[in-house]
Amino acid sequence: MNITVAGTGYVGLVTGVCFAEAGYTVTCFDTDTEKINTLSAGISTIYEPGLEEMLVQNMDAKRLRFTVSPAEAYSGADFIFIAVGTPEREDGSANLDFVESVAREIAEHARGKTVVAVKSTVPVGTNRKLAGFFNPRSGISIVSNPEFLREGSGIADTFQAERIVIGTDDKAAGDKLAGIYRRFGVPILRTGLKSAEMIKYASNAFLAAKISLVNEIANFCEVTGADIEEVALGMGMDSRIGSQFLRAGIGYGGSCFPKDTKALVKLGEEWGCDFSILKSVIEVNSRQKQKLVNAAIGIAGSFKGKRAAVLGLSFKPFTDDIREAPALEVIRQLLDEGADISVYDPAAMGKMREIYGDQLYYAETPEEAVKGADFAFVLTEWPEITAFPLEKYRLFMRQPVLLDGRNCYSAEAAEKAGLTYVSIGRKA
Ligand code: UGA
């Protein structure tokens, strides 16, 4: 059974390595020669705990290889997973250029009897359109197979998936794909092609909505004197609500929620549907990202001549990904306000430096970042940051104002440590 994965981004690479780990022979394809050379040398191109070791082991076992040749990738494959990006266009819609170009190359090189499973997040109707790229007599069938793994826990999310969605109008192709997932022993849901495409967008929209709703309730808790953590605990005990994704904070980021919510709104417009809830979800999230700098301005009046430390740059812990990270918005605001900024993150410093160069000071430790600062912003709940003792802020900072965007510390302990402490949705 030969599997090819097209695209070695986050989803593609984790998928390829995990299929190899499950015992299949896997070829990962990408057009980026540098990436393929790095991967062929046994070096992971993404930051994902445990992935590099698994990659090397499977390369050594000759179950995993990498190529830039479409002929090599597609001609001998029984299954081809398309896992290339569908980035946001300027108008918010999903750019399908990469997906379409892969489909064209598959049509050219696949030898037939091939199941093409689309993991890329694509608007409803796209897979039907892609099927039109293949000659009906070629024996190539298309299945929608959306991906639900999270950055930072991709391997566990693959082997312990809560569901695998297989959407197709071609039952035999769906059966074949279900067959290769059987080894994972995870629940499989069979649906039509369009429903599978919708499940992906609807799931991300729902999760984003859950976060924005909880953030709005948190903001209201601040005004009324309630405490969002107690409120979320009480809400989460209702199994209809569920206790996950009720963590209030500085807003959601990453390569998925911001892009997919906007794409769904845009898609709705194209079909004459007004996603008014989703529009609010997006607006609440963008306001939430500005909340802490506004609070700091409320305390100090101005950032002129002030120093701000930003602890945590990635959009969540255990990744170096800073796409749409709240830190980007906070840093943009701080630069506009004329602050002097030092930053610290255990994994994402390199990516931040690519954007901001020498506009920021890149500290090697949290201590170094907060030294001499007037404000410290905690934006990602990395263990290295949550373990940083409250006393050290007071000891090292010029004016210890701590703005905790992830509710990492206890408000009571922060005050006891002599800090001016601002968090999200909790009693000040
Ligand atoms: C998300 C989904 O969770 C995955 O199921 C999906 O496969 C993926 O998008 C995708 O479409 O590819 P991911 O973006 O990796 O995964 O990260 P999440 O763990 O979902 O976190 C997203 C953002 O929400 C982070 O910024 C996180 O800090 C924030 N968040 C999450 C909260 O603010 N509060 C919460 O309670 C949970």
From TrEMBL:
Which keywords annotate this record?
A: NAD, Oxidoreductase
Q: Name one GO molecular function term.
A: NAD binding
Pathway the protein acts in: Nucleotide-sugar biosynthesis; UDP-alpha-D-glucuronate biosynthesis; UDP-alpha-D-glucuronate from UDP-alpha-D-glucose: step 1/1
Residues reported to bind NAD(+): 30, 35, 86, 121, 151, 259, 323
Domain UDP-glucose/GDP-mannose dehydrogenase C-terminal: residue ranges: 309-411
GO terms under biological process: polysaccharide biosynthetic process; UDP-glucuronate biosynthetic process
Question: What is this protein's record name?
Answer: UDP-glucose 6-dehydrogenase
UniProt source species: Mesobacillus zeae
Q: Which lineage ranks, top first, belong to the organism behind this chain?
A: Bacteria, Bacillati, Bacillota, Bacilli, Bacillales
